[in-house]
Specification:
mainly alpha, rod-shaped
Length: about 70
């Protein structure tokens, strides 16, 4: 029983970490999107590339959290 409890609490901690990272990435993406509105044309291309990279990172973290929830 203790092993199951330890496994469950470990998985829960992992989910919380994933969601925390997801929240931070999401807030960074919102800030970047806001900055993109006022950027110059050359800056927009760089910002879009960064935004796409960040979106990919959010998707990866979201998948990690979903996997952890399924395993729990």
């Amino acid at each position: 029983m203790t092993e199951i409890y330890n496994l469950a609490t470990g998985k829960a901690a992992n989910i919380i970490r994933c969601l925390s990272v997801f929240k931070e990435l999401y807030l960074d993406l919102l800030e970047l999107a806001h900055d993109l509105k006022s950027a110059k044309k050359a800056q927009k291309k760089e910002a879009i590339n960064t935004l796409m990279c960040g979106t990919s990172m959010v998707k990866d973290k979201s998948n990690d959290a979903s996997s952890s929830i399924r395993l729990l």
